[in-house]
């Protein structure tokens, strides 16, 4: 995604590109959303629309605008890594505001992720500082959006795909209003010369037949389909497992950026990627690894852990329950009756 946005960024105003991609991405998901609303008879109230509008503002106007600006200020691979840390920020936000459980493995993953980000940023030899800061803020806000989308979608009765679609449409509409305000002469003159991209922001300037395929790829596949599937998978398998997609980005993006854009990978970037990948693996598989190690330790030290396997305990309880005893007694009674009848006359065998 970052590579495609980097290529397209040179042909469009960054705010304009953000507006176009989320507008088209939302429209691409709209037929599926309408079908879902009709099939499940979902009624959206005024307060529900306000929730959707706020969610759209957070993702489109705030997070993705900062994200698009950051890509133009620093390398695409670094920004991809920044965005990949958003599930960790989502865990923190869920813990602080929703009182969601944060295990020790999640805390360890958080620490490793932050260490990896610091290694990549390399504050002692900082280059492209503004782009990195904007990318980090964008990732934090994206984590907030993930929490808001889940909570608000659940309260309204929308699935992940429908909530994504409506948030994109509302967010692009809100961004479009701000773009329109930038055309007011007084506002355009008040914007400093160093921020010229915020004055007289075009809506569809530069769209040609040559760049239309790239624009549709970014809008429909990268934005609409990818975001929608991410939140659908989050509903099916949970936020941690769905975040597996972000585990691929830190490893894949720098390699693609190297071959497509010619962006060289620095040593600190590679080290930071490894640390973040390790932190993400702990987030996704930490509990399994912990229980696996405990199981091995118990097998090798039975004296230290004399307790029986939980499955064996459950099995023993079932076998010795009152219902099991009654069933055994009934089987014995039936067997005795069959034996008595067999002695008096020929009857079918008990089998």
From TrEMBL:
InterPro entries documented for this protein: Diverse_Substrate_Transporter, EamA_dom, EmrE-like
Task: Give me the segments passing through the membrane.
Answer: 19-37, 49-69, 75-98, 105-124, 130-148, 160-184, 214-232, 239-261, 267-286
Domain (EamA) ranges? 4-121, 130-284
Q: How does it sit in the membrane?
A: Multi-pass membrane protein
Q: Which GO terms describe its cellular component?
A: plasma membrane
List locations, semicolon-separated: Cell membrane
Which domain of life does the UniProt lineage start with? Bacteria
Recorded family membership = Belongs to the EamA transporter family.
PANTHER family in the record, alphabetically?
EAMA DOMAIN-CONTAINING PROTEIN, OS03G0707200 PROTEIN-RELATED
Query: What name goes with this protein?
Result: DMT family permease
Name the source organism.
Companilactobacillus kimchiensis
């Amino acid at each position: 995604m970052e590579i495609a946005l980097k290529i397209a960024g040179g042909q469009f105003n960054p705010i304009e590109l953000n507006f176009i991609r989320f507008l088209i991405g939302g429209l691409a998901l709209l037929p599926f959303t309408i079908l879902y609303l009709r099939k499940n008879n979902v009624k959206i109230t005024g307060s529900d629309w306000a929730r959707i509008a706020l969610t759209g503002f957070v993702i489109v106007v705030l997070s993705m605008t900062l994200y698009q600006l950051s890509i133009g200020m620093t390398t695409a691979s670094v920004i991809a890594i920044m965005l990949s840390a958003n599930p960790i920020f989502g865990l923190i936000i869920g813990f602080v505001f929703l009182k969601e459980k944060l295990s020790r493995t999640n805390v360890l993953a958080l620490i490793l992720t932050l260490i990896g980000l610091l290694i990549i940023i390399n504050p002692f030899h900082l280059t492209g500082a503004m782009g990195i800061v904007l990318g980090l803020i964008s990732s934090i806000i994206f984590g907030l959006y993930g929490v808001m989308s889940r909570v608000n979608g659940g309260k309204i009765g929308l699935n992940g795909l429908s909530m994504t679609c409506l948030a994109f449409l509302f967010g692009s509409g809100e961004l479009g209003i701000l773009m329109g305000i930038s055309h007011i002469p007084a506002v355009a003159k008040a914007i400093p010369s160093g921020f010229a991209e915020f004055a007289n922001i075009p809506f569809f300037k530069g769209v040609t037949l040559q760049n239309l395929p790239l624009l549709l790829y970014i809008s429909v596949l990268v934005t609409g389909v990818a975001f929608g599937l991410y939140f659908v998978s989050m509903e099916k398998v949970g936020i941690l497992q769905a975040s597996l997609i972000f585990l691929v980005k830190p490893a894949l993006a720098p390699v693609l950026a190297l071959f497509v854009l010619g962006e060289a990978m620095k040593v600190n970037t590679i080290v930071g990627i490894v640390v973040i990948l390790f932190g993400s693996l702990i987030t996704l598989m930490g509990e399994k690894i912990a229980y696996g190690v405990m199981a091995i330790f118990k097998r090798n030290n039975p004296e230290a852990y004399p307790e029986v396997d939980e499955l064996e305990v459950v099995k023993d309880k079932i076998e010795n329950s009152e219902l099991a005893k009654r069933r055994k007694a009934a089987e014995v009674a039936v067997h005795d009756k069959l034996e008595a009848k067999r002695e008096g006359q020929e009857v079918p065998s008990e089998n």
